[in-house]
Every structure is written in structure tokens, then in C-alpha cells.
Design a protein that fits this description.
The complex is a heterodimer of chains A (505) and B (360).
Chain A (H helix, E strand, L loop, with lengths): L1 E2 L2 E4 L3 H12 L4 E4 L11 E4 L2 E4 L7 H13 L5 E3 L3 E7 L5 E7 L2 H11 L4 H21 L6 H7 L3 H5 L3 H7 L4 H8 L14 H13 L3 E3 L2 H15 L3 E3 L4 E7 L2 E7 L4 E3 L2 E4 L3 H8 L5 H11 L6 E9 L3 H4 L5 E5 L4 H7 L8 E5 L14 E9 L9 H23 L7 E7 L1 H8 L12 H14 L11 E3 L2 H4 L9 H14 L2
Parallel strand pairs in A: 1-13, 2-3, 2-14, 3-10, 7-16, 14-20
Antiparallel strand pairs in A: 4-5, 6-9, 7-8, 11-12, 12-13, 15-18, 15-19, 16-17, 17-18
Helix pairs in contact in A: 1-10, 1-19, 3-4, 4-9, 7-9
Chain B lengths: L6 H9 L4 E12 L2 E8 L13 E8 L2 E8 L4 H5 L2 E7 L5 H9 L5 E4 L16 E7 L4 H11 L6 E8 L8 H10 L4 E7 L8 E2 L4 H7 L6 E5 L2 H11 L9 E3 L17 E8 L2 E8 L4 H7 L18 E5 L2 E3 L8 H6 L1 E2 L4 E3 L3 E5 L3
Parallel strand pairs in B: 7-8, 7-11, 8-9, 9-10, 11-12, 13-19
Antiparallel strand pairs in B: 1-2, 1-6, 2-5, 3-4, 3-6, 13-14, 15-17, 15-19, 16-18
Classes of the chains: A alpha/beta (505), B alpha/beta (360).
Bound molecules: flavin-adenine dinucleotide.
Chain lengths: 505, 360
Amino acid sequence: MKHYDAVVIGAGNGGIGTALALTTAGVKTLVLEKHNLPGGCATSFVRGRFEYDASLHAMFYDLLFKNVWENQFHITSPVTRVPDIITVAYTDTDGKNVYMDLPLGARELVMAIEKEIPGSAPVVQQYLGLCGEVLGAAKFAKSPDFTPELMQEKFPHFQMLMKMTAQEVFDYLEMPMNIQAIFNNLWWYLGPKIDEFPFFRYAPVVMMLVTMPTYFPNHACHGYLAEMETKIRENGGDVWLNTEVTEIVTKDGKVCGVKTNHGDYIETTQVIADVSPRIVFEDLIKEDSPKKQALLERQKDITENFSFTIVYLGLNKSAEELGIKAHHLFIADAADAKETYEASRGWEGPYCIGALCPNVTVKDFSPEGTCVLSLSVPMLGSALDGMTQEEYFKAKDEFAQKIIKTTGEHLGIDLFDCIEEISIATPATLSRYAGVRNGALGYARTFADIRKNEAATAQLNGGNPEEVYEGLSFVGQFAFGIGYQTNVTGIPVAMKVAQTIKGGN
Amino acid sequence: MAHNIPNANRLAKLMHPKSQAMVITNVKDENSSMRTYTLKASDDHELAYFSAGAYIPVILEIDGNKIERPYAICSSPKDSVNGIYEISVKRMDGGYVSNYIYENWAVGTEVTLGGPGLGDSYSPIRDKKHVIGIAGGIGVTPFRSMAKAIVEGDVDCELTLIYGANTMEEVVYKEEWKQLEEASAGKFKCVLVIANEEIEGCEHGFVSLDIINKYHDVTDASLFISGPAGLVKHMKTILAPLNLQKRFVRIGMGGDSQFAPMEKAGQDEYKILVHMAGETREIPAKSNETILVALEKAGFVPAVKCRSGVCGFCRSYIVKGEITLADTEIAVRKRDKELGYIHPCCTFPMSDLEIIVHRG
Ligand SMILES: Cc1cc2nc3c(=O)[nH]c(=O)nc-3n(C[C@H](O)[C@H](O)[C@H](O)COP(=O)(O)OP(=O)(O)OC[C@H]3O[C@@H](n4cnc5c(N)ncnc54)[C@H](O)[C@@H]3O)c2cc1C
């Protein structure tokens, strides 16, 4: 019988990171991944002479990647800093298309928007101030100087902001809709509708996107994930791809092994799942437990998050030739984010498009004279309800056509003239890659969800003492409760597991 | 535990089945060396849908070895909705799998298929309204699917098929081309180009720009080329001076046949130390056979799909040793190349090797 100290299920960002940390700590580890390459959501694919990253928009290299992967784990896959410019284009309340190339940095941004929309400076400045207050307060709460009185003095709006939705903050500032439009169509970075979106979660998104430098890996996420895969093996670990875990075997509430679709039984006392806990509890573990039932119950009525339909284009002109200046281009057919949110339940728009041109950052991301442009449109998995396969194939093409047209109109580019390769992913594709229901990316985490679910999510977090099954921990987007920077979510879990194993229990 | 499955997940499962249980309901000899098999779901499952141009893996067990081979689907997407796939199989000298199929498949035979894989399909977004198909040999099969899809209204384009063959006997689907032309309201035309015979109503000689232009302006169409290595090379040569945009020239996957024999690899014999999911074994290999073939001959069942270097499903890792790649376009990711990952289906050993492969 095969035995490993630890088995990691899933080689997504979360799982691969965990396995690298485990093997570095000397734990004999096996990674089992049902697909033929690591990556999960962050996979890459090749069409013709183009290589695409399926998901990544950008990462915060200084904070996490450099500190953790480069400095501690000696990953050398190169990354490049995204130029300090974002493009925002939307249809305003008068039906007019607005286009702005905006600089990074709060001050610069205020000035640039003032130029485009005279008189906007005060309200934009106030808004960014409130966003900054949320970030500052969160940081201060953890500092040794913290006292409630000082907190109140330094961050006078914080108490109020903690209770407000993102929409309420706009309303509080009486910000005109056409200025809101610059900031509100970012809702899809996390999910909830703007009027259910806790501002304390929205503010960091805004601040990070408009003030913080971001990075993009030169060879897509696959570049560093493949390097990590290689390092896991060099460290004495094994990675079996194309191997799906069909059961996590437990006895008396303790993990004792896993079964796979190839008929393997692998003995282990530690399983780390880079898989949604709901799937683990509903499908992979047969043994019942009251704790498991209670958790499933609590997860039942949370708001399932949206997914994406993504149109990946390989264009036979360079970004410069096309006049694409920014890596991130935020496009919306409506100023009001409530409209674009509602539209994500179907296929008809108004669309909210996160366009991405990695070649702006990594010049040779695709061959000379070409560039990659991917267009992500938030969409709830339920938009596919009732469709047959045949209808789905047609809907994909029709939808892509509309998204490309919309993008082209907002950017002033005839995209149809230069499409060499096109691929389309939908919530069905994401459900296949991540194995999750409706392709949903984590939980929406509206105010209501947070109240209902925070406790459950926290408990599912690998770092917690109150395990549902002994020897089972979770990493990745579902354990973390959010699908960003997932590759570091497994490190604390790996440390704890390594300690348990070394401690001999 | 029973719980309702969202339609998005249901669709994903339907479109990407691990395997599909089928039974042969019809066998038709197209000529002396090519047969068309009609397959129907043996368990009445809903077949995976596809775009005309896709291929489907046939999963076989020959002499106790599990083997998988891609075949272009030559029936239409609509046929699949009606529960049917068709593939045409050409018998080849020394063709291990095709000969097996030829000898063993008959009406009533139970067959396992995989899920459809991406081939060259018409895109209303990328392609010109008019497609010129240039085909030879077994490469003609996907055009039958496409022509049918045009007639059935599932693909909205025009297709001029320039179909090259040595003799009239070689030409397959003769009657069907005519019927499809008639039913297509002018959207589909098949032009036969016969090299060794002069036949009325057909072009004589090799496929040339003159012949193509006679039927449709080659610079105002999307070209889909599918056929033996010789035809592909010939087409590349005659198209080169036109400097057509790459987006308008698509070259079909050639499968194993495009690689062998690999002259640059020579005739040496090597050993490969193979690690596969906990199993380690040394196997013999030849420098003019792909690593995939060496694995299969030794009884391994590695992950494999397109056998053309394109889909990447067989992605594996070279621990040590020297390799060389086939000259075709191979879709190994850039970083994978640097790190030592390969696609065994199009890679040849140039020394003893140690590799990590994954199970199919
Ligand atoms: C369009 C899009 C854009 C994004 N942009 C960004 C961005 O800019 N920045 C950012 O940080 N994040 C971004 N994300 C989110 C990020 O891609 C994901 O959160 C992250 O990749 C999730 O990693 P994970 O390891 O948690 O999960 P997954 O990627 O879902 O990995 C889970 C893995 O487990 C495998 N698996 C599941 N079940 C089994 C089983 N039974 N047996 C074996 N294997 C199994 C799956 O195949 C998969 O490989 C984006 C996502 C999308 C879709």
C-alpha cells in the first residue's frame, strides 16, 4: 500500500503552494490533480501561436509573491510591473461614451478625473479618503499603539463606514452617477451587488486598483506554477496529474486515506483539500458527522458568487498599433453598477467588461506584431439554466460577438479586423476546471452572507483548531473565502500540518 | 449524497465525458481502403455536442493494451443531437489501430469513445464568410461534417472544397458531395482535383492557385487545409508568396502519421526510465519513434488525446536526457520548454531518458 505523510487534493494555486511549503519542510507529500496540468482556475492554454492565462489580471508582487515565493522558496519565474495607467470607459447616464486613461496614485487620479469631469475633484478626493480610512484603520487595529480612543481620533468615519454598503457611501457623498461609474463597475472583483456590498470590502479593491502597483508573471501563472511543480518533485514530493480523488476515507472522524479514479488507495493521516468544502463534504467524505451536517446547513443559503464568461482573443496587431495603452481596461455599458449586476444573470447586457492586455506589461507575451486581449464578463452560472448543448454553442458565439463589438466601440478599435484566434470560456468551463457549482468563484459575501457564514468559513479555514475531521484542512479560494492571492493561502496550513506530523500525532 | 446539479455543471459534464459507450449500427465501404462507421449510444446517453471539425478519441484494447486514437468526426453536429456520430477509418500499411478497427468492427460491435476534442472549426467571428477547404486523403473527413452543418443551418458560411486525389477510386463520399451541393442552395461546392486521371467535371493535376482561384478568390477566404504531410507542404509553398494573414490559413492536425519516420532522429536505440504514478520501469525506445509510441508499446497507458503536439494533454517531464522535437507546430508552453516539460506524442529520444508521465 502506498503511504504519504500528506496528500494535497488539487493543484490549483492553493494546493501547489501548500505542497511546496510542505515538501520544503520535509513532509513526504503527494499532490493529486484531476486535470493534466497544475493551475485549476489559473490554468493556461495555447491556441495557434498564442498562449493565454485563463484568469489572472494582476498580482501584488511586493506584498506576497516576492516576500514569500522568491525570498523564502526561491522561485525564479520572472514578473513585470504593470505600467501605472488604467483605462476606464463607460456609457454615462446621457448615453454618451466616456473614455479615460487614468494614472495610478490617489493624487494623480483626482487631478486626471478633474480634467475629464470638471468640478469632480472634491468628491473624488473625499471618496478616496474614505477608502483610505478603511485600509488605515484595519492596519491600525493590529498595531501596538492601538487604543479605541486613538482609533476614533485618527479614523473618525470608520465606525460609520463599517456599517455601510458601497452604494451608501456614494450616496453619503452625493457623488453624481457619472463619477460613481469610474469606481462602481469594479464590483465583479468580489461579487456582491453594489447596494449589498460591504464598503469595508469594497474600499480595499478600489484602493488597490487605483493606487497600488501590480505585477504580471511573464509566462502567465502557469510559469511559476510549473516551476513550483518541478520544485515539489525536487524536494522529494510527487505530483500525479490526471488523477481525481473520488473519496477521502475517514474512520471515527479521522482521515486515513484517499481513493482515486484509477483505483489507487493512498494511506495518509493528513489531507489538504484545495477544493470547495461543500464538494468535499457532499461528495468526497462518506462518513457522517454532526459537525459536517451543521456546516453544510449553514452554507446552504449563502449567496453563490457569480462566475465569468471570458472571450480570449489572439490579435494579429500589437497593442501599440491598436492604441491599447493600459493592461487593465474597465469597460461598462452603463454607469449604474446595479444595472450591470442585474445583467450578469443573463446574456443581453448592459455589459461590464474587464479587459486585459498582458502585452502592455510583458511586451513579448505573444509573438512580435501581435497581442492577447481577454475580455472577462461577470456572469452568474444560472444564465446557462435551461440551455441544451446545441443552444449553448450558439449562445457562446453570439455573446462573444456582442462583447467584442462593445469593447471595440468603447476603445475605438475595429477588433473584428485582427482576430487570429478566439476561445470562449463560460461558467460551465469554470465549473469544469474548479469542480464547483455554477462555476461560482467563492461566496458573494454580502452583509447578510458575512453574518451567516463568517463563522462557518472561519471554521473551514485550515488554521482553525476546531476541525470537522481530524487531519483534514482546506486551502485555496474557498477556505480563504476569497479568490485572490490564493497561492499563499496554504502556507500557514502547511506549517501546521508539518508540525503535527513532526510532533508525531 | 443526492443534490441537484446546476445546468452549467451538467453541460460541462455532457460536453466533456470521460467516455461514451457506443454501438456500431452501420458500416459502409467508401472505397477499397476506407470505411465509414455509424455509432449510436448503446446506453441512450445524450452525446457530447461539438463544432464541425472536431475529432473524437476512440478508446480500444488491443492485445491487452489500452490505446486511444483521435478520428475526425465526419457526421454533423445535428447528427449528434439525434444520437449519432460517424467516423471514417482509412486502412494503412502497418497501421496498428486502423487495421484492428478494419478487421474487428462490425454492426453490433460495442465501442468506447471519449469526448470530442478541438479541431479546426469555422468561427463566425474570426473567419471570412467564404471558406476554401483543401483536402487530401483521410483529411477530407471533417469537411463532410462541415458541409452537412452548412446544409443543416448550423454553420453560417460558404464552403468550396478543393479535394485532391491521385485517382477517382480514391475519392470518398462521391454521391454525398453531390447531394450536399444540391441541398446547399449554392453555399457548398466540391471540386475534385485528380492527379493521375483526366476526368470530365474534375480538375486534372495537383491542387494549384489557378485551380483554386477559378472557383473562389483565394485572398478573400479562410483556408482550412487538411491532409497528408505532402499536401500540407505543397500548400505552404504555393501560398507563401501571397503573404496571407495567419488568421486566414488553418492547418489541420496530422496525428502520428505526420511525424514518422523522423529523418533527423536517426535509427538509434535507447532506454527510458519511466515513472508513472508510483510505478517505475525501464523500457526500450527508438530515436525514430515518439516517446508516446515507446510507452504504449511497453504497455503503459499514458494520458493522450490529439497525438499531434497540439492539445498538450500528454504533457510530461524530462528528468534527464536529450530529446528532439518534430518539425510541426508544437504547442508546448514557453515556460514548460525552459523547465523540461514535453509532449511525448511529438518528441523523440536522443539519448537514454528518465521521464515522469501521467496515466490516461
Ligand atoms: C477570470 C478570472 C480572473 C481572475 N483574476 C484574478 C486576479 O487577477 N488575481 C487573483 O489573485 N486571482 C484572480 N482570479 C482568481 C484565481 O484565479 C483563483 O482564485 C485561484 O486560481 C483559485 O485557486 P485555488 O487553488 O483556490 O482553486 P482552483 O484553481 O479551483 O484549484 C482547485 C484544483 O483542484 C482540482 N480538483 C478539484 N477536485 C478534485 C478532485 N476530486 N481530485 C483531484 N483534483 C481536484 C481542480 O482540478 C483544480 O485544479 C481570477 C479568476 C478568474 C476566473
